[in-house]
TrEMBL record:
Stored SUPFAM superfamilies: FMN-binding split barrel
Family matches, as Gene3D superfamilies: Electron Transport, Fmn-binding Protein, Chain A
Protein name: Pyridoxamine 5'-phosphate oxidase family protein
InterPro entries (alphabetical): F420H2_bilvrd_red/Heme_oxyg, Pyridox_Oxase_N, Split_barrel_FMN-bd
Swiss-Prot/TrEMBL keywords: Oxidoreductase
Highest taxon of source: Bacteria
Pfam families the record matches: PNPOx_N
Residue span, Pyridoxamine 5'-phosphate oxidase N-terminal domain: 21-134
Amino acid sequence: METTGTARRRTAERTRDVLERLGTERDVWVATAHPDHGPHQVPLWFLWDGRAVWMCTGASSATVRNLRREPRVRLSLPDTFDVVLLQGEAECFPDREVPAEAAQAYAGKFGWDPSAEEGSFVYVRVVPRTVRAWRGEPELRGRVVMRDGVWLDRRPSTAGVPVT
């Protein structure tokens, strides 16, 4: 892995790159915590709808149990050099109560419909409040590209989807 010679991207370029990755990547690391049992981290498939990250996991999973007690969550894309960290609060939807458009988009992306399974599943929706993105040490300063749910260095958005 090369860590030198990385050109520092402007905030708008970082934001564009984050949005592209959110739209194309498959996996995200989900970090939750339980007040008695401590931290828990697991990779899940995810869907970006232009405003929120949607994931799905078993209704009895440690992730769901943790989120019901403590909805604050951190998500990270699986690359240790091109880092993207999202923070927000999770909202849980039993598979029979999830908005139809989210369930259809999720099934369309992965070819898997949790409602067709025998077990119970929960969709987890996270609207990011903070997003950090950096590639190597030169980008550590200025790594915040979203603060308080607002993309920095971007024009106003329409329907929650940032306008370039």
